[in-house]
Amino acid sequence: MTIPFPPGPEVKRLDLPFAGLPEGRCFVPGWRADGKRYWLVNAKECGRSMHAHRMAAMLLLGNLISPYMVLHRCGNPNCLHPDHLYVGGPLENHRDKILHQLSKANAVELASPAQSEGVDILMPMPLTLSREASLLPAFSGFFPDTCFLAPWLPPTNDGYCQLSESSKSGAVVGAHRKIHLFFNGPLDKYDIVDHTCGDNKCLNPYHLFKSGQQESRRDFNVAHDERCTVTESDMKLIRNRSETVAGIAGCRGIHEQTVGNLRRAALGKLRG
């Protein structure tokens, strides 16, 4: 599918376009939320968090068969380059560990294994790449003029796709938002992600861009946050600076984070 138009003057873009996948190098998002060995990402439709590289494989390679693992050919646990991800078991994982340990032991000091390119993306050169066979087909690639569709993903009730069957809206759990987080940049809960290609099911980061934020955070929370059951009476308390966030949350049964978000939004509008 060809892109009918790139974002132009009539389309407000609030982020940088996808930088592309570096050939022969890893892809490590510099904006990841934590510095741990593996990046944990929330998957509300699955009711839990999961490793980012496993989620990326589910989105870009196909349905995973339990208990198989998503392994890194490059040996870099932070890498999200789909060419470096494959599905295997304990034997493949063990052989990969030996391969990567040997490659590190034999590495030449002058050939630095890590280089930084771009603003927020790390692109280290792997010392070696595993050639183990994958239980799922290899990544088919991202191309500027072609959509990337994942027919194995179930649809949302508003025309997008997601990791697993869910009645929740794709505005919160849509697969395209996860792809943007992995390859384009971080997202706020209220950020709007649009498609230049016009196909809501497309997962090509070349076609994704951040165009704005929800006009009403309160309306968005009521529609998409199961913890949010906010009434006009609740909002009067939230706007009252003499009431504490924790106190409102406790007496009204609203999640404390939701109360805080609504108070900041409401008081910000009052100041404006």
Computed Rg: 21 Å
Q: Element order, helices and strands?
A: EEEHEEHEHHEEHHHH
Indicate the mean pLDDT.
83
Strand content: 5-15%
Number of helices: 8
Terminal CA distance reads: 44 Å
Number of strands: 8
Percentage of residues assigned to helices: 25-40%
Structural class of the secondary structure composition?
alpha+beta
Regions with little confidence, pLDDT below 50 for 5+ residues: 1-5, 109-118
What is the topology, as strand order, of the major beta sheet? 1-6
What's the main sheet like? 2 strands, antiparallel
Number of domains: 2
> Globular, elongated, flat, extended or rod-shaped: what is the shape?
elongated
Account of the 3D structure:
The strands form four sheets. The protein has a two-stranded antiparallel sheet with strand order 1-6. With 272 residues, the chain is an alpha+beta fold. The chain has helices at residues 52-60, 90-105, 170-173, 175-184, 217-224, 232-239, 245-252, 256-271, and strands spanning 28-29, 40-43, 48-51, 69-72, 85-88, 121-122, 191-195, 208-213. Helix 7 (245-252) packs across helix 8. It has eight helices and eight strands. It folds into two domains: 28-213, no CATH class; 217-271, no CATH class.
